[in-house]
Write a structure and sequence with these properties.
Layout (H helix, E strand, L loop, with lengths): L3 E5 L5 H13 L8 H10 L4 H5 L3 E6 L2 E9 L25 E8 L8 H15 L4 E7 L3 H6 L3 E8 L6 E9 L10
Parallel strand pairs: 4-5
Antiparallel strand pairs: 1-2, 2-3, 3-4, 5-7, 6-7
Length: 185
């Protein structure tokens, strides 16, 4: 297995990230959704350039190859890409609001190799360092087992039909441990 490294994504990474996201939606997520729901997911999900501009979006690489990505946000938007309706760049308040874990994707060939766990840990540590004591996310059915394994609990199940088909999603949350300061290797 290749050594996993991580870094903050930049605008130059956007084409590679878009390709990775598309492969992730078409690959592992397809086991949980119909073809119409996959197409709707492409319209709902994707790159959020605000996360990249905020420098809160990570890329995990295996020998220089993008294996996964994901980020966190101190903004109201819960999920979706640049093209998703209903986004809000308004800031959240640390200690009052939950930070958002956003746009987590793993390349199909790197599923179940620790990529998602590493991204999640990076995001939680960064959100904690920014003053947040809890995080929330909106999970796909494919991502739900990862989040459950990392202590997230279901807040609510819902469907989003803005992409043209009803896509099942799960809002989840977690309290962040106090005193985490070590960055994962």
């Amino acid at each position: 297995m290749a050594e996993l490294t991580h870094r903050i994504a930049t605008e130059a990474d956007i084409p590679a990230l878009v390709a990775l996201m598309d492969r992730s939606i078409a690959g592992p997520l397809a086991a949980f959704l119909t073809p119409d729901q996959i197409n709707a997911s492409r319209r709902l999900m994707g790159i959020d350039s605000q996360l990249i501009a905020d420098r809160t979006f990570f890329i995990v690489e295996a020998d220089g190859v993008p294996a996964g990505c994901g980020g966190w946000s101190g903004r109201i938007t819960e999920y979706g890409g640049d093209h998703t309706p209903g986004r809000s760049p308004a800031p959240l308040t640390p200690g009052v609001d939950a930070a958002r874990i956003r746009a987590m994707y793993t390349a199909p060939e790197f599923v179940r190799q620790g990529v998602g766990s590493q991204i999640l840990s990076l995001c939680e540590l960064a959100a904690r360092a920014a003053g947040y004591d809890r995080v929330e996310l909106v999970a796909t059915l494919g991502g739900e087992p990862l989040y459950l394994a990392h202590g997230y609990v279901e807040i609510e199940r819902f469907e989003d039909d803005r992409g043209g088909a009803r896509v099942p999603l799960v809002r989840m949350g977690k309290r962040l441990a106090v005193g985490h300061s070590r960055e994962p290797g």
